[in-house]
From TrEMBL:
Residues 10-83, 109-183 form the Glycine transporter domain. It is found in: Cell membrane. Its main location: membrane. Keywords: Cell membrane, Membrane, Transmembrane, Transmembrane helix. The chain crosses the membrane at residues 6-28, 35-55, 67-87, 108-129, 135-156, 168-185, 191-207. The keyword Cytoplasm does not apply. Pfam families: Gly_transporter (PF03458). Belongs to the UPF0126 family. GO terms for cellular component: plasma membrane. This is Trimeric intracellular cation channel family protein. It comes from the Bacteria. It is a multi-pass membrane protein.
């Protein structure tokens, strides 16, 4: 039980750091000040979990009762900002094009990792609250946990949330969530979790690299 608990803590920390970095990158790209970047980082990291807890009736939300993950996101954001300053100081050796590509790739990978981890952790939260038989609800919880923080981040950045415009964003969470629920009755819990996270991360990254999109209606 202690091993499982430690594994979950590791995943939550990793997901928090990943989303905090993605929030920091968006904040830097939109030229926010340091406070604005930190706020963007924290909201991206814990926003989805707050939505999840409110739907489950867990109030106040875990992130507000115990600020551990808020502190983690702030630390991750500060480190990311320091790295950004180092890159800026070496701009002569790193072309603007390469710097922009680095930030775009960092945003993509960190956001994908956060999506994968928090989607499955959101599903587990629904199962822990006794909703294991309601597949629609727990998958919805997972998707909301995965995309919720990013939606708030994008709204604050005054842009249409990626879930509504980006190359296949929420779809990997939905499919990965269903895959996770299905695999739990066939293989071990941790293996099902690992497979589902990797699936979501890879599909998100591949869809972005290959510019795969859902159909749009144009006029």
């Amino acid at each position: 039980m202690e091993v499982i608990s430690s594994f979950y803590l590791f995943l939550e920390i990793l997901g928090t750091v990943a989303f905090a970095i993605s929030g920091t990158v968006v904040g830097i790209n939109h030229k926010l000040d340091i406070f604005g970047i930190l706020v963007m980082s924290v909201i991206t990291a814990v926003g989805g979990g707050i939505f999840r807890d409110l739907l489950l009736g867990a109030t106040p939300p875990t992130a507000l009762k115990s600020p551990f993950f808020i502190v983690i996101s702030i630390i991750a954001s500060i480190v990311a900002m320091l790295v950004a300053l180092i890159i800026k100081s070496r701009r002569e050796a790193l072309s603007i094009f390469k710097a922009a590509r680095f930030y775009n790739n960092l945003l993509l990978v960190s956001d994908a990792i956060g999506l994968g981890i928090f989607t499955v952790l959101g599903i587990d939260a629904g199962i822990a609250h006794g909703y294991s038989q309601n597949i629609f609800f727990i998958v919805f919880l997972g998707v909301l946990t995965g995309v919720g923080g990013g939606m708030i981040r994008d709204v604050i950045a005054n842009q249409v949330p990626m879930i509504f415009r980006e190359n296949i964003y929420a779809l990997p969470c939905i499919i990965g969530g269903i895959l996770y629920v299905s695999l739990q009755s066939v293989i071990s819990h941790n293996l099902a979790l690992f497979i589902s996270v990797i699936f979501i991360v890879l599909i998100r990254i591949i869809s972005e690299q290959r510019k795969l999109n859902l159909p749009r209606i144009e006029y």
